[in-house]
Specification:
Length: 150
């Protein structure tokens, strides 16, 4: 059986490696050049300069907070929407109360139950991940033929 394995391994190593098409490199280089020459605002947000990402995130947060803080005074600015706004807020009040109670419950559960054991759980997860990595390395070396290089 080992002779067959060695012969098969020898024959497979003699095969030429896969070749990329000759047009692949120019197409890749063209795509990279086009992506790099595109203006920053047309690229993905994660590729923007750090200062612009921080500024845009801060402006978005400021916009959200501003809208949230100004919502109660909207009825004063738009007198015609006053009754409609009051009616809509009257319907949302129970849902907002339930949401507030749920947020309080989550905060209490975090403080009393989860937070004291979170560090231990994190250490356990890291330790088990390392054990799995060591075991996978052992299986890879022993069972999958990674140990012998002949």
């Amino acid at each position: 059986m080992t002779d067959l394995e060695h012969q098969l391994d020898h024959e497979l190593r003699r095969l030429p490696g896969p070749k990329a098409p000759t047009s692949l490199m120019p197409r890749v280089m063209l795509a990279v050049a086009q992506a790099e020459s595109a203006p920053w605002y047309s690229r993905a947000w994660t590729t923007w300069p750090v200062a612009l990402r921080a500024t845009s995130a801060a402006l978005l947060a400021l916009l959200i907070v501003g809208i949230w803080r100004l919502m109660p005074s909207v009825s004063a600015w738009v007198p015609a929407a006053g009754p409609v706004w009051t009616q809509a807020m009257g319907r949302l009040a129970p849902a907002m109360q339930i949401f507030g109670e749920f947020a309080t419950l989550v905060r209490v559960l975090w403080s009393v139950i989860i937070q004291p054991i979170a560090v231990y759980f994190l250490v356990l997860v890291i330790a088990l991940s390392l054990v799995c990595a060591v075991l996978w390395t052992a299986v890879n070396c022993v069972a999958l033929g990674g140990a012998s290089r002949s």
